[in-house]
Amino acid sequence: MQRTVKTMFWLMAxxxxxxxxxxxxxxxxxxxMREVHAVLLGLAQEGAAPARDxxxxxxxxxxxxxxxxxxxxxxxxxxxxxxARTISALQFPDKWASVTLGLVDLTxxxxxxxxxSVEDMIAGTNPVALDSPRAVxxxxxxxxxxxxxxxxLSGEAGTDETCxxxxxxxxxxxxxxxxxxxxxxxxANFCKAPAFRKR
Length: 199
Description:
By secondary structure, the chain is of the alpha+beta class. It has one domain. It is built from five helices and nine strands. Strands 1, 2, 3, 4, 5, 6, 7, 8 and 9 form a nine-stranded antiparallel beta sheet that branches. A hairpin with a 5-residue loop joins strand 3 (70-77) and strand 4. The chain is globular and about 50 Å long. It starts with a helix and ends with a helix. Residues 1-25 have low confidence and may be disordered.
């Protein structure tokens, strides 16, 4: 399965035509930036370590039920480290896989809101200061923050293209808080996102 998914990754990567501008000097390392993107995209659940693969990180969903779908996601950054591309393959047993190509751009983060509970986040009420110890959920918003295009390898016509204007960052325990604050620091200090320039 992993070999098949890896082959699909490289075939799809060859078809990608995203052009990224040259990065500034003193940028964070590629591995650090991949970790930041993985945290924000929910790939590094519970500190899951990816498989390293020629400049990219591959995350596999671990499931014990053989009837459950398998998900593998390759994450890579290139010339512009504040932008990352993902290639995800979702395989249901005895069915063709679907492949999703995604692009996240952290320079588009125009607002950041922290909440003390999931309920407040869902309701959009009672925000708290971003550096508050009570902050357990952070919502990053920005137009076209994460766009993706999904297609089936079964030969079905058409693709499903969507753009999301938000990313949710949980920080419910000490480990999540540490990873989340590192990611926010990179977005603020290196990516120079508008949300932090306004502060």
